[in-house]
Amino acid sequence: MAAIWATLLCSMVFSGLSQAQGQTGSPCGDPFRNHYGPYDYRVTTPQQRAIVENVHFTPAVESLRAGNTSMGPGGDLDYTLNVYPNHHRALMSMMKFAVRERNARPGGVQFSIECRFDRAERFRPDDAMVKVIHGLYLIQTGKPADAITKLEQARELDSNNANVHYNLGLAYFDLKKFDQALESAHVAYAQGFPLPGLRDKLRRAGKWRDPVPVVESASPEVTMPESVEDAVQPDPQAAPAAD
User: Fold this and answer.
1) How far apart are CA 29 and CA 8, in angstroms?
2) What are the Cα distances from residue 14, in Å, to 21, 64, 217?
3) Cα dist from 76 to 59, 70, 106, whole Å
4) How far apart are CA 66 and CA 35, in angstroms?
5) For residues 207 and 174, is the Cβ–Cβ distance under 8 A?
6) Where are the extended beta strands (E) located within the chain?
7) What is the spatial distance between Cα 115 and Cα 128, in angstroms, rounded to a whole number?
8) Before 85, cis peptide (omega within 30)?
9) pLDDT digits (tens, 9 = 90+) for 179-227
């Protein structure tokens, strides 16, 4: 009997691993397979999101204070990210959870934060915000060079995103690439980014310079002729008109 239970247990474990890895064989699983969804967070309606968020992504879960259907926030974040692999706010909360616990796979979560980024980027490679959050995580874990690579990918996807330029500027600053950091800061603030942190860092380092105002060149003044005769001047080389 004990042997039967052991066989069943092994079968369940390997079945679970196989399901987690999915058909791709990746240790991060298959982001395209889930019992509900998965869906692209960017194109679903608020009503569709509420089906999951009202239960699994409550304010307490998002702020990492507590779980709602699980003992801690990890289980509910897992559920949210399985349904919406590129759920920006849930991905941000999972990243903060990993940073707070100093553990890439904090207690109660199915996949590490690296896997969550991997799944989100495979699910929707064109989502610039996923790469921004990934870059922010790399900055916070002391990998600014890797962060720059990720944020430059985000910039290629969405050059009008102030978040991209701001965080790219932070990564450049950490690598002491102050000219690039300043350029990114100017773009971010021109696009309306509200936080002064990057500007303050550059000021403290003596590297801040206000952007040079763009002076529009005045159009040359054109004098309109008073009459058609004034507009067409005679050519002195032309043959005289016949009488």
Assistant:
1) 23
2) 10, 31, 70
3) 11, 6, 13
4) 25
5) no
6) none
7) 17
8) no
9) 999 999 999 999 999 999 999 999 999 999 999 886 665 555 544 444 3
